Fold Thyroid adenoma-associated protein homolog.
Amino acid sequence: MWLASRQNSCVVTRGAFVDVLVCLCGPDISILEDSEVGTLRQKTLSVLTASELVTSCNSSATFGPGSTQYLLSLARVGLSAGVEFPELWDGPQLKTKLLDHLLQCPQYEVRELALEGLLRKLEEEEEEERKRRPEWLDETTQSNLTSLALHETHPQCLAKVLQVLCVLSSSDELPWKDGARVLSLEEVLLHLLTLAQNSAHSVELHCAALTLASQLGIRLVNSDPQSLSAVACFAQWGALVCSCCSEERPAEVKLAAARVLVKCTSTLLTSPRLPLGLSTTVSLWRSLFVLLQDEDQEVRDSASDFIFNVPARLLSTDMAGVFTCPPAALDSGVGLLCRLFEMWGEVQAGILALTQWLLGEDEHSQDAAVNEASSLDDDDFLFEKGDLNLWAEPIQWVKLLHRHLGSLILTFKDTQEPGSAGLDQVNQIHTLAQSKALSSQQALDSLPALPQFCCTIEHARLTLRQQRAALALEVLDRLRQRS
């Protein structure tokens, strides 16, 4: 006890013997009698309460060599008493204060250790236990956590506190406080969206901010969908989620985006009210389909889980509650989106959106096809593997879109007038499709003899582009006939 106390001037040995005390006071070592362990725990707590970590005394032990390791050893005592094994230690009020001291410690290493301990404890708890408020979560600790989320400057600590709040917010609505001031959901959401946009350099922080912002966004939709400030938040949030689904993003980011889209399927993606508006909702569906075709198996499988959150009334009986592989989930998802267009009364807008997907990315010049073809390598080769390999097959994706577009056009009634804006958009897409078809044909004609053998990649890509354009023109012609 003397070696672990402040009477010992060597902070390195202090920290080492504090670690020994943590082991002796824990549940795993039973070399002492119960009464002896109880006495030892009380003495260990007295060492902690008299230490620089609690008294905030600016001594050499706080800033000198070995001080960080010493403070971390003290922090482990506080975590054991306040979070990990509170039933073994007496004095509940003292234990709560210890946790607050850890969260407010100037050394980021101590804050990070405390947050890791909280997160580990929350993740170990069963789902039913999470619904009950943890013993250590009083109003002061809750306020400290939300204040840290708003003001923490160390990226790893900030990521950890956001992860803790993600778990806590999933089972209960937490009031966000910055000191004495209570923040609205819109204020917190805007802060988190800005944080996520500015933290792409840190994958852990970026994913944590995205996940927590999505939880609050869903809650905001359920609480006040008509708020103008909320509508602005929704558009910004939708753009953020879509940006996290692009092919070049790290797998961890795409996994986080997939989980977000799965969780918001019933609330946002399939809602008859269209709380995000048609454009943002369709963009989120497109991002989900991109993830279902991602090269990473874990990303595809995670995105496939959206089927479990689709309302039963929108699914066929053979799909409800059944695990679905990514190719089948992709097919079902596009079919579901077509039914949603009918439910929303936006069949024509849906046809035009899917036709643009069918056509592919816009081109800015007639030579774009040739320039892109010349830069391809063997990794881009398109294999025809059959209808069950949709995730990696642009050809199969095009066929799938065309098939569902054909069914969607049949639901477009003759009495539905497209309007001048709709006609303008149809004509615009038609002109672009014609341009793509012409440029692709010209590029194909410029290839040497037997191009499928001597320049396979260029021929495959140009053929796909030509097929996209031809199918898009066919869809638009059918739409004009129905109008």
About this structure: The beta strands are 177-178, 181-182. Confidence is low (pLDDT under 50) at residues 363-392. The CA atoms of residues 168 and 174 lie 8 Å apart. Residues 346-483 form one domain.
